[in-house]
Amino acid sequence: MVKTVICPAKINLFLEIHEKRKSDGYHTLDSVMQTVDLADVITLNIEKGNEGISVLMGEKNADIPTDERNIAVKAAKKYFEAFDIRDYEATILIDKKIPTQAGLGGGSADAAGVLRALDEYFGFNDKKRLDDVALSVGADVPFCVNMGICRAEGVGEILTPCAKIPKNTSIVIAKGSGSVSTAQAYADFDALGNYVRRDSDDIIKAFEKNDLSFAGIMFNRFEEVIFPKLPEICEIKKTLYSCGAAGALMSGSGSAVFGIFEDDASASAALDTLLKKNVFACKTRPFYTE
Q1: Which of 10, 78, 175, 283 is catalytic?
Q2: Secondary structure of residue 92 in the 3-state scheme
């Protein structure tokens, strides 16, 4: 069986970091995530056999590992183990469109796409076990399996759907040459000291207005520790605002920044401006499954 799945990127419309858990060292979060139609495409070939799981990448993604370091392989193996699947093999072909180390959840999206494809093929229809497998693969993977827009709490596994932002919202995403290590971003946060914690209640209420009022109250705690180290990210955010963005924010732990625009023409103009700066940039919209 050959199955092709779309694996959309995510952006964080809100991200506050809470305490570190003593049990496993993970930080708990209060976050709002939204999938967008910037997406990788995975083609999964599943058949009887004992060759295991392999990943194929295009030439332009030659720097991405194709062994067990690839989170898509990890997801497939975890699924096979959890559901006691034997005598099957899988080949995963990834057409990579989402920039890496960008805070856009590209790896998590790929892992989630593999899990969705496998679950559709084998048909176990056990959402609880699927979500448990997703969490064991990575903190953002449960959201990427579900997609849409959700408040994410805990380490990312407690998901509460939010009111949808308008489907025709124009979003411009940009990423410069710098990349961010998530582990280092959390280490820098731990050194931040005292801060006034914010919560996502206000932005979640703003979604219910079905307009772009949420854009002015977006927030990401990581900006405080990332911007001083990578001023290029801050400059991209300023460029988005100078081009008329209603709001702009770094996504996740960076280094991509996105801007929310009131009309497509303004978004297109911002895209042109950013491309002239020789950075990755694309125009996208919210992605929903229905």
Answers
A1: 10
A2: strand
Task: Judge if 35 and 155 occupy the same domain.
Answer: yes
pLDDT at residue number 58: 65
Residue 8 belongs to a domain = yes
What single-letter DSSP state applies at residue 165? Answer: P
Mean pLDDT of 188-199: 90
What is residue 127's three-state secondary structure? helix
Category of 244 on φ-ψ map: left (φ > 0), alpha (ψ -120 to 50) or beta: left
Please identify which of the residues 30, 140, 175, 188 carries the catalytic annotation: 140
Residue 80 DSSP SS3:
helix
Residue bearing tokens 């854009």: 215
Query: Once rounded to an integer, what is the mean pLDDT over residues 79-83?
Result: 96
Question: Is 149 strand, coil or helix?
Answer: strand
Taking each helix axis from N to C terminus, what angle separates 71-82 and 127-137, rounded to the nearest 10 degrees? 140
Structural domain span for residue 14 = 2-161
Task: Indicate the pLDDT class of residue 250, thresholds 50, 70 and 90.
Answer: very high
10 is known as an active-site residue: yes
Domain annotation covers residue 96: yes
pTM over 0.85: yes
Tokens of 111: 């892992």
Handedness of CA 193, 194, 199, 203 (dihedral sign): negative
Q: Cα 79 to the chain's mean position, in Å?
A: 20
pLDDT band at 274 (very low <50, low <70, confident <90, very high): very high
